[in-house]
Amino acid sequence: MRLISLIAVGILVFASTSVRADGKIVVLNVNGAIGVAKAEYVLSGIEHAESTGAELVVIEIDTPGGLMAPMRDIIQAILGSRVPVTVYVTPAGARADSAGTYILLAGHIAAMTPTTHLGAATPVPLIGGEASPEEVGDDESEDGEQETTAPGGAMERKVLNDAIAYIRSLAERHGRNADWAEKAVRDAATLTAREALEQNVVDYLAENRADLLRQLDGVEIEINSDTLTLATKNFVIEEYEPNWRIKILSAIANPETVLLLGLIGLYGLMYEGWNPGAIVPGVVGVICLLLAAYALQVLPVNYAGLALIIVGVALMTAEAFAPSFGALGLGGVAAFVFGAIMMFDSGIPGFGISITFVVAVAAVFALLLIWLISYLLKLRKRGAVSGKDSIIGGTATAMQDFTDDGMVWLEGEAWKAHSPVAIEKDQHIIVVAIDGLTLTVEPLAESGIDEARQGT
Predict the structure, then answer these.
(1) 183 and 217, same structural domain?
(2) pLDDT tens string 242-287
(3) Are 424 and 382 found together in one domain?
(4) H-type helices in 52-177, by residue range?
């Protein structure tokens, strides 16, 4: 009987160990500014953890801040998650500033690596100047009565008060220091990891992920009115990777990438317009412009800066058409540089643009634009001088195999062509007639025009 009891206990222990060993922890890595792509990644990661029955989600975060709307989406996903969420500021030297502080306080468990910090959570206005904490309250007149502030000041005060109430509610939800959380918004206060632990802003201080999970084993937390006991001693870690859509959005939702895509798209369409039939520049241009337009929807953009960029490109184009000894070109470069800086000068961490990068891109693309337009104008002038008669009798090269209709290359341009006989790619052919923009061609050996010209 005693032997049977021991066997039964052994089976129970083994079964318990097996169940805990099958537990899964989903790890999300959030590095860089908080934007739409980061929010979609976190939301999809939490949904994945819920659908696969994970025991815990660990969001490893290192961010300077970001946009308010994506931050709120992330927080709502954390608060509504059926799986406990730990927000962990790591590695050493990382930070959870601004929007990162809100996300950290929203986690069911908040942890930090030593030598990390958090705070500076004052909201930054996207439009208009910033107001200091002292400027945000009601103004007091000499007789002690409250004076109403200007509309801009009232809006800033509303934004600040809303942020304070929001961050206090997050801190109070998990029994953390709501008074300091308010200071992080009102006074842009910051704390080191050790200070945050001492002041009850975070729950744990861990050297690394393994140390954190070791400390969390057996911890009881409340989630959706239920008390859960974490089992993180024996676990399987899954590093959740973003899907292809989120990867593409992350790649293009960058001010420098958007600027390059916009310029490549613009140049591609300009070249296609001046040289119809090239096809590839037009297709690439349209794709790049659509990608840039999509990225602009998820970035904080000043559209006055975008207008100035367009003016700059127009001035550089005018320099090629009407040379002004550099006046129009320099004005276009200056307008482009200032426009690019203004366009992404939102003051939000992680969404600025390098002035050096803007100046370099402006100089390179200005020279390229002026050279391209000048080259195309020379081709046009040469065609205008030579006229229709010079095209007839000209030697072209077939761009493809065709019978009846196809494309040929003549004097630096692609032309539609018609031939009564089969033409092979790269074959030399001669123009015998022209109807509008369509050439009638024949193989060079069959036309006899060369011989006639030599005889004359």
Answers:
(1) yes
(2) 888 888 877 787 788 888 888 788 777 777 766 666 678 778 888 8
(3) no
(4) 68-79, 99-106, 133-136, 151-173
**Among 139, 135, 79, CA closest to 108:** 79
Residue range(s) defining the domain that contains residue 197: 21-139+147-242
The single-letter code of the amino acid at 283 is: V
How far, in Å, CA of 70 to CA of 48, rounded?
19
| Max Cα–Cα distance, the chain, nearest Å | 123
Determine which helix (DSSP H) or strand (DSSP E) holds 216, and give its type and residue range.
Answer: helix 209-216
pLDDT of residue 338: 82
Which residue ranges in the chain fall short of pLDDT 70? 1-22, 125-153, 273-278, 317, 319-327, 329, 345-352, 369-370, 372-390, 445-456
pLDDT at 212: 92
- φ, ψ at 80 (rounded to 5°): -95, 0
The conformation of residue 292, written as its DSSP 8-state character, comes to: H
Cβ-based burial of 278 (10 A; exposed 0-12, middle 13-18, buried ≥19): middle
Residues 238 and 262 in one domain: no
pLDDT at 414: 81
Percent share of the chain, pLDDT over 70: 76
Q: Is the peptide bond before 133 cis (omega within 30 degrees of 0)?
A: no
Assess whether 217 and 237 both reside in one domain: yes
Question: So what's the pLDDT on residue 83?
Answer: 92
CATH number of the domain bearing residue 436:
2.40.50.140
Edge-to-edge order in the sheet of strand 109-112: 204-205, 109-112, 85-89, 56-62, 24-31, 236-239
Question: Pairing relation of β-strands 438-443 and 413-423?
Answer: parallel
Report strand pairing: 95-97 vs 117-119: parallel
326 and 267, same structural domain?
Answer: yes
